[in-house]
Every structure is written in C-alpha cells, then in structure tokens.
Amino acid sequence: MAGLNVSLSFFLATCALCEAARRASKALLPAGAYASFAREVAGAVQLAACCLETQMLVELGPWAGGFGPDLLLTLVFLLSLVHGATLDGASANPAVALQEFLMAEVSLPSTLLKLVAQGLGMQAAYILTRRCWALELSDLHLLQSLMAAHCSPALRTSVLWGTLVEGACAFFFHWALLCLRHRPPGHRVPAIALLVTVTAYTAGPYTSAFFNPALAVCVTFQCSGHTWLEYAQVYWLGPLTGMVLAVLLHQGRLPRLFQRNLLYRQKSKFRTPKGKLTSGSEDARTLAAEGSSQEPGHSSALHLC
Questions:
Q1: Cα separation of 213 and 92, whole Å?
Q2: Which residues does UniProt assign to the signal peptide (predicted)?
Q3: Closest CA to 76 of 202, 180, 175
Q4: What is the pLDDT of residues 219-263, one digit of tens each?
Q5: For position 110, what pLDDT does the model report?
Q6: Is the separation of the CB atoms in 175 and 192 below 8 Å?
Q7: Residue 238: is it exposed, middle or buried by C-beta count within 10 angstroms (0-12/13-18/19+)?
Q8: Which top CATH class is 2-251?
Q9: Structure pTM?
Q10: For the chain, which residues make up each domain, given as ranges?
Q11: How far apart are CA 297 and CA 251, in angstroms?
C-alpha cells in the first residue's frame, strides 16, 4: 500500500500545482492567451502526468503491488471526475480542439495555438514524470525507472483492429461531448467520467483506450514493437475519424465546411393546411416557402440526444 499512497500523493500534487498555474495565468494573462494557450498547457500537463502514473500502476500494480482491476478502474473514474471538474474548459485533446473547429466554434489560429499548447504540455509532463520516477519514492517508481528504457507498447492487437477500437472509442466519446455540452457540469462530468471508465475497461486490453492523439504520443510512441506509422494509424487516424463521424452524424453536416444539411431531411417551419386552396391558404403556402428558404440549415435530425 505504500506504493499506492505515493501514487495518490503524486496525483494530488500534480492537480494542485496545475490548478495553481491555472489561477496564476488567469490573473496575469489576457483572456485570449489564457483560453487558447495557458489553460491548455496546464490541462495537458495534468492529464498526461496522471495518465503516465496510472499506466505505471496498470502495468506494475497487479504483480508488484497486488492491485486488482476494481481498484484501478475506480482510480480511472475518480481521476476523470477530477479532470472534468478542474480543467476549466481546457480539452487537452487535439481531437476535441479540431471538433470545436469543425463545429465553427473557434477560429483556425486559436485551434493551432491550442494544438501547440497541448503538445508542449504533454512533453513537459513526460519529462517531469520521468524525473519524479527517478527519485525512487516507492518500489513501483524504482521498477518503472529501471524499465523505462524498455517500455511495453500500449497497442496489443493488430493495427487494423486497434484503429477500429480507437475510432469506436473516440466516436462514443465525442458523441457524448456533443450531446452533453449544454448540460450542467454536475450531470456532464460524471457521465463523461463513467464513459471513460467503461471504455478503459472494454478497450484497455487492446489499445489502452487513449482516443487522444497527443496523449498517445506521450505515453506509447517511444515504445518498441511498432513503427511510428503504425502508431499514427491507430492513435491519430482512428480517433480523428471517430470524431468526424460523431460530428457528422450529430449535426448532419460539418458546420465549418457545409451550410446545407447532408444527412437529414429538410422540413418547413410552417405547416400548410390540407384541402382546397383558398386565397388565404395560398398566402400561407407562400409564407411557408419563404420560411423554409430562410432556414436552410433546419433539419429533422431525429433529436438522438
């Protein structure tokens, strides 16, 4: 249990330091610089450092610490709750940043700045976490430090199947984000945390269920067993394809690229009465035609959420 206590202290210290960095940058920086860069860096550091420590517990905990899968899944759920409650709107996920761009919610320069911030934050977390392991504060950290040069890859299946798994995980994750984006945080955060835990349980044995391109680069791209191109196919192509499909099926279009609904049937905002036409009904039909022409994006999208 000493190793688990050290890891819990690591999680607490990481979240506390990142929260302090967020508050300081929010007070000192302009709002645009904070939203597009500073909070994304802090969020990426927090997410990546906690993920690296969790990955260490998953790999070494069962045989070196006696940790069961129930403990590890509970830890994943609790960390997901903490991330959802503390990231202050940061995604720390390039796929989510690109989703916001495709939804026409943010500009291209802001999206590019977020991607750079996320990459810098992930790499900073990788360096700092390895230095923390080098301090050998627990037996698990000692073992991880000795085995760091020979890490095991997170991809434990074929490249094609791994791509499908990551794509499916990303699809359900982004679909949930789109469906819950207008819900209060008290409902949205636990639902997303539960979904992340379920995907970690079902897809973890195959790909570790990252559905986050930057996080996958930080955790597993340096491990032997697969080429960079194979890793990119699984952890970049899969999640980005799942994200695009989620936006397309939820919206019926990609708002950044298309104004017209591509999937769902258009319907008029006004209903015309059936039966013999009179002068009044002809006026109503004219108004209905004008209303439908003014709202080309309105669709009967089945309200699947």
A1: 10
A2: 1-20
A3: 202
A4: 998 888 889 999 999 999 999 999 999 999 999 989 998 888 877
A5: 93
A6: no
A7: buried
A8: mainly alpha
A9: 0.84
A10: 2-251
A11: 10
